[in-house]
Amino acid sequence: MSPIKLSGRLLSRLEFAFVRYVYWHFNKPVYVILLGGPGAGKGTLATQLAPKLGLAHISTGNLFRREISRHSALGKKIEPILKSGGLVPDEITIAVVARELARFANRRGAVLDGFPRTVNQALLLERLLDSWSQEVCFVFFLDVETGDLIVRLAGRRTCSNKACGLTYHMDFNPPKKNGVCDKCGSALYQREDDREDVVLARIENFNGTNEPMLRFYKQRGRLFTIKSSNRDGKDSVLTRVLAVMFRNWQA
Ligand SMILES: [Zn+2]
Fold first, then answer.
1. Which domain holds residue 115?
2. CA count, 13 A, side-chain hemisphere, 189
3. Is 66 annotated as catalytic?
């Protein structure tokens, strides 16, 4: 496929056709959910996919960290839970997400990264979108082996600017300048919940809740599984996700 140059980035013909299609033929907001264990690449995929489709990137992890850095009432409840590798209660999570989705700037829709995490949250989201006459369009499960997840998390570094929150990997996706965010120039650090003892608790939490989630979205005909490993190329997941969306788009 010969590439087409668009805003400084090379798009394949398939991507270009798809982006044009979304912009000109689809007026309804588009909601995309990314499922996958900690380190499966949800954040990386969301930061690539959302701008390409003109959607908001909503990461509950980043929303929670923003509340914590503001020392808000919600932030004070959330902080000890995240530090111990636990899950934030559904009623807090859906409230934070609903407020973000309802913003005018996010009216085209969103790529949701890290939410919903449980069937109860998925039901709450379904009810919320239903009340706006909207629905989840695509659910992608990024299927990665546990060994690969641990390698990824050990090398992960996060931007210390809470408003940015981009993530990098020291081997697979290093920043241009060591220890500095490409996008905003802030220092990178290792998140407390990426340390190994916490990581194992997070993977266990994930495995326990993921199976029922997969069943939930499979029943609704929205689930697509994308297998990936540490041997894959950098843009392989994005390319496959765009191809699936292109083939399964229902206007
Ligand atoms: Zn940054």
1. 27-155+190-248
2. 9
3. no
Residue 86 to residue 94: CA distance in whole angstroms? 16
Residue 68 in any domain: the answer is yes
Q: Is 222 a catalytic residue?
A: no
Please give the average per-residue pLDDT across 111-127, as a whole number: 93
- Whether 46 maps to a domain, the answer reads yes
Tell me: the pLDDT tens digits for 56-74?
A: 999 888 899 888 999 988 8
Is residue 194 in a domain?
Answer: yes
Check if 156 is active-site.
yes
Q: Residue 143 belongs to a domain with what CATH number?
A: 3.40.50.300
Q: Catalytic pick from 52, 65, 66, 117?
A: 117
Distance 183 CA to ligand 1 centre (A): 5
Question: Ligand 1 centroid to 162 CA: how many Å?
Answer: 8
Task: Work out how many domains the chain is built from and give that number.
Answer: 1
Contacts of 95 (CB under 8 A, 6+ apart): 74
User: 182 C-alpha vs ligand 1 centroid, how far in Å?
Assistant: 7
Structure confidence by residue, pLDDT tens digits, 153-177: 889 899 999 788 888 989 888 999 9
Say whether 59 sits in a helix, a strand or coil: strand
The CB density around residue 239, as the number of other CB atoms within 10 Å, is 14
Q: What is the pLDDT of residues 198-218, one digit of tens each?
A: 888 888 888 888 999 999 999
Give ion ligand 1 contacts, CB < 5 A: 159, 161, 164, 166, 181, 183-184, 186
Q: Does the predicted model carry a pTM greater than 0.70?
A: yes
Cα of 24 from ligand 1 centre, angstroms: 31
In angstroms, the CA 111 to CA 36 distance is: 14
